[in-house]
Amino acid sequence: MEKKSKNNKKQSNIPNKIDDWSFQDAKKLFDNNDSKFQIDKIYFDDCISGMKKLSDNSIDCVVADPPFGLSFSGKESVYNRKDNFVVDGYKEITNDYEKFSHKWISEIPRILKPTGTAWIFSGWTNLRDVLNAIDNSKLNIVNHVIWKYQFGVFTKRKFVTSHYHLLFLSKTKNYYFNKVIHYPLDVWEIKRTYSPGQIKNGTKLPDELVMRCIDFSTKPGDLVLDPFMGNGTTAKIAKSTFRHFLGYEINKNAKKIIMHNINSTKDGELFTSFNKRSNL
């Protein structure tokens, strides 16, 4: 038989110490924004030059899925998709990947608030360059999370790769972390999602994966930056959970896709208080 609290409300299996908000309270925090620069905007420009223009201590969270420095356009046959459903213009890093990583990662400590955090996705090929850039930037590695997905490209003489690295970073030891799961493991098994017949910009991160980063690292009303906006997933999830967003995307051919994904999303449409979620 279910236990009930004294006020006759169903008790949650989520620890009492987490931060949680009702829909109305989350909306108030979202609406009471006092940012000193324009937010909820995508700049179709290079993120390195764009981040240099951002104010110090202005970003609550960074979610970044940069190019991995591979020979990739998103149209390769191994991804089992028709190339006419992938827009042209995806730009891969073909020269010094460590230099590229240092340039954009070195901007993060300046723009993050003291309580801010960052999530950086990486494959294993250039992981060392990313880790070196993080070390040089003096960011703290809080966790090295593994995202395990359900398939990989077929191989003949080595194991199939079916995971990405997800580096959880902080600017200071006083970073914000909302422990919304009682026993949060550092291996996340989340399936890739597919949208057959829909046009996309390269590959797309699952909504659930981006939402998990945002759930643990932000509060309603916070500002989330994505330097490599891709398909606009981070902006869409931020907007749908009462967070503000800011992003950069160098592929101007992706503008229609990104703006459609954002404009078709209503403020807070996916927001549910943690106490009412069935998947936690």
Characteristics:
18% strand; single chain; disordered N terminus; 8 strands; eight-stranded mixed sheet; alpha/beta; 8 helices; 280 residues
Question: What does the model show?
Answer:
This protein has 280 residues and is of the alpha/beta class. The protein has helices at 23-31, 47-51, 97-105, 108-111, 127-137, 207-217, 233-240, 255-263, and strands at residues 41-43, 59-64, 112-122, 140-148, 163-170, 187-189, 223-226, 244-248. It contains 8 helices and 8 strands, in the order H-E-H-E-H-H-E-H-E-E-E-H-E-H-E-H. The chain is globular and about 55 Å long.
Number of helices: 8
Query: Regions with pLDDT < 50 over 5+ consecutive residues?
Result: 1-16, 72-82
Biggest sheet strand order reads 1-8-7-2-3-5-4-6
Q: Give me the count of strands.
A: 8
Distance between the termini: 20 Å
**How much of the sequence is in beta strands?**
15-25%
Q: What is the rounded Rg?
A: 19 Å
The portion of residues assigned to helices is 10-25%
Structural class: alpha/beta
Any idea what the shape is? globular
Give me the oligomer status: single chain
Overall pLDDT: 86
Tell me about the largest β-sheet: 8 strands, mixed
